[in-house]
């Protein structure tokens, strides 16, 4: 049994650090927005209100039947009346149960439909978010919004709002009947009403803060699970022998979730226990005063019994109504967190009159392009509305992490304000352009701008003379294919991973693409062939196999412009040779931009762009750049030394 001292301690903890800024009133703008999602279900909502009224009326019948039994059937020894009334005590609950089942069906249909619309809108909006949003937001946080918060919003619709309406109608109906029975006892029963209001107003902001605290801790726990239980995270933990540390870290966060749940449970149960005590006092007063009036002959025993039964039914809905703001603002927290994502502006959006390119020649230009990675918190999940630092910025710690510094060939740091600074070049249709330079020079940023994963801060990027910002995102995606160094495969069959590029591709087209990528024979050697499951992120396959599948996927898409990172240093010589041959086939008759790591690719390039600190410092053919005896010549003697020796 919980000691009262322990309850007092918990209560002090619960009320600790309660900021006045957190004591917000009902947000009617938010409520109006929630109701806007219910517009398609107006007919079902109207029917549900009718069932609520009907159910409330039926709930009044049993006390009145009891009154008639006590005051008429029993004193008059009227057996037929007693039989009929007793039958009514059975029929009324049965009828009420049928009405409640239908009401529940309506309620579920409305709630599930509304949440379906909200969930799909949320997912669709997330699909439009920029790459920056996902690099600055933890996946576990998004999963928490899509799952926990959407379920919380569903609970608000299916339970909280319906209960408020039901209780309101029940209270009005019961008060009407009680006043008709005996208005003096009704006033006595309502004397305790002020005692309900004060604690409700006091506890409302507390429960809201505790609900947010539990959501925050749950999101942090989910973020840790998402980071450490995927295949890459698991491998990292095992390779560094950090299992015990991760267990301890998870234990700490799970404990905080449990503690937040206990605080919320203690606050709620203590509050409702206090309300129950107040209700008991009100019932006792009515029985005492009403009993004396019965003894004086003012009214009958049946009236007192019926009134007491109605009063016991009244206090429940009355308590719920007094506590409605508490329940409402707590449940609205979930809607706030969901709407926060829906309100994030789309950074990479297309214009209303965007042009859909049907055919592309492959003429690409970068015109005085400057680009800076935006480090502001705009267009990201807000911390302010989530009760003090509930955004999950880091998984391992809350400390400021030192950033890695990359250096150029001369030892100069690549850290700078602009990732690209006044970059200009042209690529003719069908040409191969190789990007070379030290790590962090801006090569990858160029490959991100072409498929419009980011927009330039200044200047413009064009295809066939069209600014990328004037084109539809779909047509741009159709004509640009990208193979990254880090290949991603879905946890599905190889066939489905390939069909992701072209869902209507035939088996012959799939096999042709795989043959061109030098992976068909390997796939056919697998037990299930093209129906072999690739595993989580394709980890059942080697790096070279995954990369060749990704090349086949791009070939199946058949884009006019190809962007790729040619990194093969982590592969064995056989896989490297197969990939190199596949890449040569992929680049044939296509405009290609390649972050080049092999001498053979550089020698085949029509144009070589040498980058350093976000600028193109040299450009030309292999022979022209060697003659300059600059950075390219230095990279040629160092970075490509192995290729020179084996050429």
Structure explained in plain terms:
The protein is α/β, with parallel strands linked by helices and 647 residues long. The protein has two domains: 25-342, ABC transporter type 1, transmembrane domain (ABC transporter transmembrane region fold, Up-down Bundle); 364-373 and 406-646, 3-Layer(aba) Sandwich (Rossmann fold). The chain contains 24 helices and ten strands. It has helices at residues 4-15, 28-36, 42-59, 61-73, 79-128, 131-135, 139-181, 183-189, 193-228, 231-239, 243-295, 301-322, 324-342, 443-449, 473-479, 494-499, 507-516, 520-524, 543-557, 573-587, 599-604, 622-628, 631-638, 641-646, and strands at residues 364-371, 420-427, 432-436, 458-463, 466-467, 480-483, 561-565, 591-595, 607-612, 615-620. A six-stranded mixed beta sheet has the order 6-7-8-3-9-10, sandwiched between helices. A four-stranded antiparallel beta sheet has the order 2-1-4-5, covered by helices on one side. The longest helix is centred in the middle third of the chain and has 53 residues, at 243-295. It is elongated and about 120 Å long. The termini are far apart.
């Amino acid at each position: 049994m919980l000691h009262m001292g322990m309850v007092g301690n918990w209560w002090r903890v619960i009320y600790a650090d309660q900021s006045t800024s957190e004591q917000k009133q009902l947000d009617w703008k938010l409520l109006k927005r929630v109701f806007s999602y219910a517009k398609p279900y107006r007919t079902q909502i109207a029917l549900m209100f009718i069932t609520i009224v009907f159910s409330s009326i039926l709930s009044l019948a049993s006390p009145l039947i009891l009154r008639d039994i006590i005051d008429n059937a029993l004193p008059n020894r009227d057996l037929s009346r007693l039989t009929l009334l007793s039958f009514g005590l059975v029929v009324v609950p049965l009828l009420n149960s049928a009405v409640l089942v239908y009401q529940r069906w309506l309620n579920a249909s409305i709630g599930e439909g509304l949440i379906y619309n909200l969930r799909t809108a949320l997912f669709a909006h997330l699909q439009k978010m920029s790459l920056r949003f996902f690099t600055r937001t933890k996946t576990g946080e998004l999963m928490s919004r899509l799952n926990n918060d959407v379920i919380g919003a569903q609970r608000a619709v299916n339970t909280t709002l319906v209960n408020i309406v039901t209780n309101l109608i029940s209270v009005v109906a019961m008060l009407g009947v009680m006043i008709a029975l005996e208005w003096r006892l009704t006033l006595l029963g309502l004397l305790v009403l002020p005692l309900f209001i004060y604690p409700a107003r006091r506890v409302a902001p507390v429960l809201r803060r505790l609900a947010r605290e539990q959501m925050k801790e749950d999101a942090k726990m989910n973020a840790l699970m998402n980071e450490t239980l995927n295949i890459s995270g698991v491998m990292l933990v095992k390779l560094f022998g950090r299992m015990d540390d991760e267990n301890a870290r998870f234990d700490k966060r799970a404990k905080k979730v449990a503690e937040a749940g206990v605080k919320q449970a203690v606050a709620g149960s203590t509050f409702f226990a206090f309300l129950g005590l107040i209700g008991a006092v009100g019932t006792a007063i009515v029985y005492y005063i009403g009993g004396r009036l019965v003894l004086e002959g003012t009214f009958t025993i049946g009236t007192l019994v019926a009134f007491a039964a109605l009063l016991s039914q009244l206090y429940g809905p009355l308590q719920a109504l007094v506590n409605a703001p508490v329940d409402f603002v707590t449940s609205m927290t979930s809607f706030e967190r969901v709407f926060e994502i829906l309100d994030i502006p789309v950074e990479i959006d297309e214009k209303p009159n965007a042009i859909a390119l049907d055919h592309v020649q492959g003429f690409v230009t970068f015109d005085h392009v400057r680009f800076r990675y935006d480090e502001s918190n705009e267009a990201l999940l807000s911390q302010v509305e989530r009760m003090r630092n509930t955004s999950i910025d880091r998984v391992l710690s809350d400390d400021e992490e030192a950033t890695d510094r990359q250096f150029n060939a001369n030892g100069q740091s690549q850290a700078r304000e602009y990732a690209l600074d006044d970059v200009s070049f042209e690529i003719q249709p069908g040409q191969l352009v190789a990007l070379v330079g030290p790590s962090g020079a801006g090569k990858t940023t160029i490959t991100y701008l072409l498929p419009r994963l980011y927009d330039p801060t200044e200047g413009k990027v064009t295809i066939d003379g069209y600014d990328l910002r004037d084109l539809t995102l779909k047509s741009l995606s159709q004509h640009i294919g990208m193979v990254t160094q880090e290949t991603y495969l879905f946890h599905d069959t190889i066939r489905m991973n390939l069909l992701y590029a072209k869902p209507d591709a035939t088996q012959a087209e799939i096999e042709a693409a795989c043959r061109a990528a030098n992976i068909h024979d390997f796939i056919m050697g697998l037990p299930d062939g093209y129906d072999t499951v690739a595993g989580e992120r394709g980890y059942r396959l080697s790096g070279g196999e995954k990369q060749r599948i990704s090349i086949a996927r791009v070939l199946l898409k058949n884009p006019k412009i190809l962007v790729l990172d040619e990194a093969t240093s982590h592969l064995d010589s056989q896989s490297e040779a197969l990939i190199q041959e596949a890449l040569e086939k992929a680049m044939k008759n296509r405009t290609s931009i390649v972050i080049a790591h092999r001498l053979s690719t550089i020698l085949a390039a029509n144009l070589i762009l040498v980058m350093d600190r976000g600028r193109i410092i040299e450009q030309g053919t292999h022979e022209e750049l060697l003659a300059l005896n600059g950075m390219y010549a230095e990279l040629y003697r160092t970075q490509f030394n192995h290729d020179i020796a084996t050429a």
